[in-house]
Write a structure and sequence with these properties.
By secondary structure, this protein is mostly helical. It has six helices and three strands; from the N terminus they run H-E-H-H-E-E-H-H-H.
Length: about 130
């Protein structure tokens, strides 16, 4: 007797393998978790996923999904690849383009400013 067991991670791996066999390397649609993994790769390299979930300004298209799958927001591959190229410095311009009614929250802006100051000091120390 077989017991059907559905494990989301196994299904994702299966889907990736099927796409690779069809010659389609990247998925057509990304959830926020998948988009985050594509952009940052590791939680150590960017803001926490919880912060991104709470702050729509940090999500692709200012939090406006291209669609819904299984009651989760999803974005097209093109949308996510454009969002993945957004840096701290270009976030305000990106939001002005995709979600003009939204702006970078003050607590995020101050955190980004503080982080960019630290980054610039580190770069100066490395170059010296």
């Amino acid at each position: 007797m077989l017991i059907p067991l559905e494990i989301p991670e196994i299904n994702e791996i299966k889907d990736m393998l099927e796409r690779a066999l069809r010659g389609q390397a990247a998925p057509e649609w990304y959830t926020l978790e998948q988009a985050y993994a594509l952009k940052y790769g590791s939680p150590d390299l960017g803001p926490s996923l919880v912060t991104i979930k709470k702050c729509r300004a940090l999500q692709p298209c200012g939090g406006k999904p291209d669609g819904w799958q299984q009651s989760k927001k999803v974005w097209r591959r093109e949308t996510v690849s454009r969002w993945a190229q957004v840096t701290d410095e270009t976030l305000a311009a990106y939001l002005a383009d995709v979600a003009p009614e939204m702006k970078v929250p003050d607590f995020i802006a101050s955190g980004l400013l503080k982080r960019s100051r630290i980054d610039s000091r580190l770069l100066q120390a490395v170059r010296a």
